Structure formats: structure tokens, C-alpha cells
Amino acid sequence: MKSFISFIWGLMFIVCAAVFSIQSIALDPDFYTTRYEQMELASDLNVSNQDLNDSIIVLLDYIQDNRQDMDITITRNGQAVEAFNTKEKTHMVDVKALYQNAITVGIVCFVFMIGILVYFFVKEKKLMISYLSKGMIQASICLGIVLLFFGMWIAYDFTGFWTWFHTVFFSNDLWLLDPRTDFMICMLPEIIFNQLVISIIIEFVLMVAIALAFSIYYQFKKAPIGFDRK
After folding, report:
1. Phi, psi (5° rounding) for residue 79?
2. Rg of the chain taking only CA atoms, in angstroms
3. Domain residue spans in the chain?
4. Cα three-residue angle 79-87-105, rounded to 5 degrees
5. Pair 200, 106: CB distance under 8 Å
6. Membrane spanning segments where (predicted)?
7. Which tens digit of pLDDT belongs to each residue from 71-82?
8. SS3 for the chain, per residue?
9. HSE, side-chain direction, 13 A CA sphere, residue 199
10. Statement: residue 226 has pLDDT above 90
């Protein structure tokens, strides 16, 4: 039972690391503005750098519920226009809900982690780290299998992966934006999403790798032999 609980703790840690990685990278305006400058995207879209940067900030603020709308006027092709149309705004309602749900899951998992820590502190104070480190190793093995599968898929066919992701998490086809009419897909081309996913995975894997390295060290150097059979 204690081994199973420690495994759950490892899974909760992984979920929290994933949510944190998404939040720290996907919601960071600098991630996008830096790439806009490198790609000279504003020039390609016939907008100013300021309008392009302001547009992504509005979008990210809306996702984080820091504002209630996505209304912003930009100058494109010499004309003042609304940056986002009704279809784009409706799609972002779904994106915002998805993000808020992910944050909720992260918070719930963090609370469960604290609860498990309290449980082991009360029941097995001396063996607490032994159990938790073993659970982390077991959870990381499961994660490794999943990452291997998705990593190969992303490397081979990112477009296919990205399409699958949207069909799983969205119940409509509003995510199918048209670059001829929808500014959002122009300011967020596939290459940026590709770099975004890779950056999130790198940060996430690094966090898990640090926890895993400590867990392996502890299991081999510190954990009593047969502790999980007591």
C-alpha cells in the first residue's frame, strides 16, 4: 500500500512539473516577442512590432483571466482593424477553459502531494524519503515510455501530433483557423508552436530528471534494503 501511495506521489509530482512548465513558458510574452523579432514577423504581416507584441500580450492576459475580452485595434495594411474576429475569440474561450482546468489539476495534485508527505511523515518518518524516491523512479519509468512515444511522433510529424491534440481537447473545429481571414494563426505560425512544445518538454524533462537523479542516488546510497517490505 505504501509503495502504491509513493508511486501516486511520483505521478503527482510529474503532473505539477508539467503544469508549471506550461505556465512558465507558454504564458511568457518574451517567448513570443523574441521569436517575432528573429523572424521579422511583423514586417511579413504588415503590422508594426508594437501592434504584434500588444496582440500576443492581450491573448495571454485573456487566457490567464487577467482581462475579460480580447478587444484590440491594430493597424494592418495601413488600415485600423480589430486584431481578432468572432471565431478567434470564441476559440480562445475554449483555450482559456483548458488552461484554467490545467491549473486546477495542478493545484489538486500539489495538495495531494502535500497530503502524502504528511501521511509518510506521520507513519514512516525515517523511511519517508526512501518510499518517495522509489515512487519517483517508478513514475518516471512510466513517463519515459510516454515521452518516447510522443517525442518520436513530434519529431516525425508535428502537424499530425498538433492536429490530434486539438481533436482530443476541443469539441469543435474552431481551432481550424484560416491565415487569409484569421490574424491569430498568422501571429502564431506552426514553427512557433513547434518551438513552444519543444521548450516546454525540455524544461519539464529537466525538472523530472533532477528529481529522478536524486531519487536514484538515494535508493542506491541511503535507502535501507528491503524497506518497502516492512
Report:
1. -120, 145
2. 22
3. 2-229
4. 125
5. no
6. 7-26, 102-122, 134-156, 197-220
7. 999 999 999 999
8. CHHHHHHHHHHHHHHHHHHHHHHHHHCCHHHHHHHHHHHCHHHHHCCCHHHHHHHHHHHHHHHCCCCCCCCCEEEECCEEEECCCHHHHHHHHHHHHHHHHHHHHHHHHHHHHHHHHHHHHHHCCCCHHHHHHHHHHHHHHHHHHHHHHHHHHHHHCHHHHHHHHHHHHCCCCCCCCCCCCCHHHHHCCHHHHHHHHHHHHHHHHHHHHHHHHHHHHHHHHCCCCCHHHC
9. 16
10. no
Model-wide pTM > 0.85: yes
Which amino acid is it at 21?
S
Which residue type, as a one-letter code, is found at position 41? L
Classify strands 79-82 and 73-76 as parallel, antiparallel or unpaired.
antiparallel
Within its chain, how far is the Cα of 103 from the centroid?
A: 10
Using alpha carbons only, what angle is made at residue 187 by residues 186 and 191, rounded to the nearest 5 degrees? 85
What are the backbone dihedrals phi and psi of residue 141, each rounded to the nearest 5 degrees, phi first? -65, -45
